[in-house]
Amino acid sequence: MSSQPMQQATAEAGGRTPVGTLNVVDPHPLNWLYITWNTMEEPVRTDERGHMVGAVMEESRWVDERTIEIIVRRGIRFQDGEECNAHSVKRAFEEMQRWRAPHPPGSNLNIHPETMAEIVDDYKLRINFPELEGLVLGKMRGMHIPSTRFWEEIGFGYKKLGTGEGHW
Amino acid sequence: MRAEPFACTWLDTRQDRTDRVVLTANTDHWNKERGPRLERVVFRNDIPPSEALDLVCDTESEVDILTEISPADAERVQNSEHARLYAIDAMRVILGIINHGVEDAPVGDARTRRALNMAVDRDGLVREGFGGYAYPAAGVTPPYAVGGLSNLEPYPHDPDEAKRLLQEAGWPEGRALRLATLADLEGVANMFAEDLRNSLGIEVDVSVIPNEELLAAQHVLVEKVMPLPFDVLVFAWIDLTSDAPAAFMHGELYGETGPFRAGPPIERFEELMSEFATEVDAGRQGELSAEIDRFVYDEALSVFLVYPQALYAVNRHVNFVGYATTFELAETEVSEEHWSRKNGS
User: Hey, what CATH topology would domain B18-88+311-342 get?
Assistant: First the structure.
């Protein structure tokens, strides 16, 4: 299978110091999603023109027609200091798969319930699909990757509502 | 894959926003080239949009960015003392969802669908309804997206041909067309209805779905058990990326598992989507996405209206980076003249 490297966003050492405060009024009904994308890690994100760019996922390739291998970028830490690695991605995937319809925009973002994620090493995992799934990278726009503490204390609707259905 | 697509557990159950949501910069973020460049972002849910418009235009320090500016307010922002208008080409479309399952009129007939498309004066809609801040729509995919067909022209505004096609399809004498809309698209719907009346010579009954009935209307549309109370629904949709619009736009609108499909599944569309959904090469996916949009356009599966731009009012000391598919602020920064830097906030 051919390699499918994502567009790279390079991390440079010694960046700028954040300054200033911005007050925003955003009445858009997807404000909850925008805040999530502003604060959480994810496998992929989009650039200003909407093209997918690798985020936690440094690179991906199809090992065979039903298995995608994900290389996790090194050096990522969550806000609470925990390292983000392949185990974080696997945990996020499995949490998402617990629900019938986790995504508020609808179930067409669902990944087949028999899909399995396996760890290869601390920065590499493979996702095995029971059937061909060419749209998985786009679907990963809905797969957020928080730290262990988030899963244990808050979750997507877990603590407040007792369910993750429709609250990813 | 069957994932109980019509189990509407994902429909919004309406939760109130907290008054303020404060985001603080993660200075340990790995992508330092990108950001964050702001120390703090405060989402002010305690200010109504109408009041926020006054604040961003006429004052400083209360509101720096107001999203979802109406085209009717664009000039005010541009002429204001403190704000500038940003117009972003966005992955958005406004169209008329055609109910292909209507039984007492040939709403789903291909001739009717093309007639409806030819009845619309899109240039007038862009000019009068959007102040120029939109593009006339051809298919579903904006031309600036991957898979967007730059050579796809919007259906011509041709009232004579539209009327001829509608008559050929056998539109019943005296039968009014039922046009439904959400409250925030009422203006668009009224302009669309006027075009239909003038071009086709038929009555058009416009019904506005009030916000308090929105959830019930969503259930009817998505679950496909109860009959739909419209012939055409004016509808706004988006995409989360611009790389393969057919996945989140066309699939949702026309697919067998699409929540917004109004009528029976379409065999040829399903064939195309199946090929698209199982293609792992990004380049070939883009080609297939374009082919799907071409099919949808040729068959006039919807009434394609406009691709609206996303409009923002932004304080003049903010260097805003707008996104086509989201609202993210990692690259946005404030100049030294910004109130929060002058005050040391």
Answer: D-Maltodextrin-Binding Protein; domain 2 (3.40.190)
Q: Looking at residue A156, which CATH number applies to its domain?
A: 3.90.76.10
Structure tokens at A136: 């998985």
| Closest Cα in chain A, distance from residue B83 (Å) | 13
Q: Which domain holds residue A99?
A: 50-168
What is the per-residue pLDDT across B3-42, written as a single tens digit (0 to 9) for each?
Answer: 455 556 666 656 689 999 999 999 999 999 999 999 999 9
Residue-wise pLDDT tens digits, A121-130 = 999 999 999 9
A54 in a structural domain: yes
Q: Which residue of B has its CA nearest to A9?
A: B31
Superfamily of segment(s) B92-308: Dipeptide-binding Protein; Domain 3 (3.10.105.10)
Q: Within a domain: residue A9?
A: no
Q: Residues B35-47, buried b or exposed e (16+ Cβ, 10 A)?
A: bbbbbbbbbbbeb
Select the residue of B257, B280, B333 nearest A134 (Cβ to Cβ): B280
Which residues in chain B are classed under CATH 3.40.190.10? 18-88+311-342
Query: What is the rounded (10 degree) CA torsion for B261, B266, B271, B277?
Result: 0
Question: With a threshold of 0.95, does the pTM exceed it?
Answer: no
Contacting residues of A for B52, CB less than 8 Å apart: 25
ipTM, interface predicted TM-score of the complex: 0.93
Distance from CA of B161 to the nearest CA of A (A): 38
Give the Å distances, CA to CA, from A14 to A17, A149, B28, B40: 9, 28, 10, 20
pLDDT in tens, B293-336: 999 999 999 999 999 999 999 999 999 999 999 999 999 999 99
> In chain B, what residues touch A17 (CB-CB under 8 Å)?
27
| Count of pairs with CB atoms under 8 A, one residue in A, one in B | 243
End-to-end CA distance of chain A: 32
Q: List Cα–Cα distances, B73 to A162, B305, B312, B314, B315, in angstroms.
A: 42, 21, 10, 13, 15
B280–A11 CB contact, under 8 Å: no
In a domain, A41, yes or no: no
Domain count for chain A = 1
Of B27, B56, B282, nearest to A4 by CB-CB distance is B282
In a domain, residue A36? The reply is no
Any A CB within 8 A of B5 CB: yes
Q: What residues 150-209 of chain B have any CB closer than 8 A to a CB of chain A?
A: none
CATH 3.10.105.10 maps onto chain B at: 92-308
Chain A: give the shortest CA distance to residue B116, in Å.
28
